[in-house]
Amino acid sequence: MKIGCHVGMVGPEYYLGSVKEAISYGANTFMLYTGAPQNSFRTPLENLNIYEALDMMKKNNIDINNIVVHAPYLINLGNLDQEKSKNSYNMLLSEINRTLKMGCRYLVLHPGASMGYDREESLNQVAYYLNAAIEKYPGIIILIETMAGKGSELGINFNEINYIIQQIKHKECIGVCLDTCHINDAGYDLNKIDDVLNEFDNIIGLNYLYVCHINDSKNEKGAHKDRHENIGLGKIGFDNLINFIYNPRISDRIFILETPYVKENEKDKISYPPYKFEIEMILSKNNNLNLKEDIINYYKNDTH
Ligand code: FE
Ligand code: FE
Ligand code: ZN
Prior knowledge:
Blueprint: E1 2-6, H1 15-24, E2 29-32, H2 50-59, E3 68-70, H3 82-101, E4 106-109, H4 119-136, E5 141-145, H5 158-166, E6 174-179, H6 180-186, H7 193-203, E7 209-214, E8 216-217, E9 228-229, H8 238-245, E10 254-257, H9 275-284, H10 291-300
Parallel strand pairs: 1-2, 1-10, 2-3, 3-4, 4-5, 5-6, 6-7, 7-10
Antiparallel strand pairs: 8-9
Helix pairs in contact: 1-2, 4-5
This protein binds fe (iii) ion (FE) (2 copies) and zinc ion.
């Protein structure tokens, strides 16, 4: 099983630190941003320790082909304000370049938002820019993420995602990242995994599914909220997430946790990563009913 989580990339070790973080959780893959997801400031590639990171992966049986980069949230290729979408496009090109230079091929991208403009036109523009970007960087595989349907988000059902994919010339350069929290919040019923996968397969095709974000959700199906919850503690529930991951039709995909850090008290500044424990839960298929306590106890007197 290919299972990992979102990891940080901060100085001084940057990419090398990301690999070490993933290893500390028992992950065999991971996802990272090439800089802060909310802004476009980027540390120069030569400072990221790329060579050392790749070497560390090799020594720890982490396959570089399974590493996923997530594009910054700022990118909105669907904004029909031409100046803004042009900026987004340039940002996307720079992210693709960084992704490839870091040895990775998968770039997860939020399809954007229509900002009140016509959705279809907005989706057409996303496809237009994706084609242009792929033309420049044919080595990339852009994975459009399924979205929860907050505000005017695009990609809130399989039809919208398929509508973009259909327009992409180089089909080998496009795919989907399915986020379990997002599709729950968008209205898909994760009590019925086979129905969801059938629908995905009929509309898009499961061959386009490369990566799954595994998150529980704080909200009920159809809430359009997008608030992630720790595994087993949300409205999707442990059994549904396990049934999803282990479904033989998709069990060879890359699974990435993006669940929230855990705090001892609501007001605490310090919070702890849940991933080591959540990965254990998924690999053992055992629900940990003391998840938060175990995380806090493990990290609190930090020697790890
Ligand atoms: Fe995302
Ligand atoms: Fe996600
Ligand atoms: Zn989300």
